[in-house]
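Exercise 7b. Backbone tokens:
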């Protein structure tokens, strides 16, 4: 499998290293290089990639601000000269963290993590259920029973027709683990089961009487996902 990627990096030397490493690896195709997050976002609104090599500190928006505005979740390898972003990298569930200057061997280790994560995601794509830990026990929830998932800071709330379940997790972490054939992120605080959507009005969708906001950055993704006749 060959991964389609882009490089978002304002340091030209670092970008050139990444381009050469991608070509040498034989499994990563670096389609484009952007010097800032704004230009990358314009491209990403109309194009889907598997992987982003992403610098954190750039002129204008930061790498993390770019991730906040994405309407889907590609894998991300952060490239930065500082280690202080490790915690943020964990919060954004990035695949790996390359500290500059990086070597080809370290680059390959990151690529191996991308491959492994892809295999795991593909293996879980047909899962019709999930287990969540709540009240000291593991609860099995079928995808079809989940209406939506709502953020509560460091916790999330799973809403079903019969009950609400609260567990320690984040929306950012869950969006890479739930079945993408059933669930989609519509707002930084919400993941919905799009088969349960009853109605959409402007920037709000309705599921079983619940009003859920659709963020401006996710609106186009929502409209592409639903079946409009």
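Sequence design result:
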């Amino acid at each position: 499998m060959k991964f389609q990627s882009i490089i978002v990096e304002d340091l030209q030397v670092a970008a050139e290293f990444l381009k050469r490493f991608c070509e040498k690896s034989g499994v990563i195709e670096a389609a484009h290089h952007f010097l800032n997050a704004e230009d990358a976002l314009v491209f990403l609104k109309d194009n889907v990639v598997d992987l982003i090599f992403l610098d954190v500190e750039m002129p204008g928006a930061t790498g993390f601000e770019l991730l906040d505005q994405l309407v889907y979740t590609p894998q991300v390898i952060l490239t930065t000269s500082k280690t202080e972003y490790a915690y943020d990298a964990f919060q954004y569930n990035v695949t790996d963290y390359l500290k500059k200057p990086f070597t080809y061997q370290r680059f390959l280790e990151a690529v191996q993590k991308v491959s492994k994560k892809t295999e795991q995601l593909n293996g879980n794509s047909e899962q019709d259920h999930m287990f969540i830990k709540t009240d000291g026990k593991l609860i099995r929830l079928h995808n079809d029973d989940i209406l939506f998932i709502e953020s509560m800071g460091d916790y999330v709330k799973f809403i079903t027709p019969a009950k609400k379940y609260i567990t320690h997790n984040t929306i950012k972490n869950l969006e890479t683990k739930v079945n993408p054939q059933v669930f989609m992120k519509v707002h930084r605080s919400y993941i919905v089961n799009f088969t349960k959507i009853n109605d959409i009005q402007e920037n709000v969708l309705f599921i079983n009487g619940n009003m859920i906001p659709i963020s401006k950055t996710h609106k186009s993704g929502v409209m592409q996902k639903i079946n409009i006749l």
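Instructor comment: The chain has seven helices and 15 strands. The first strand starts at residue 3 and ends at 8.
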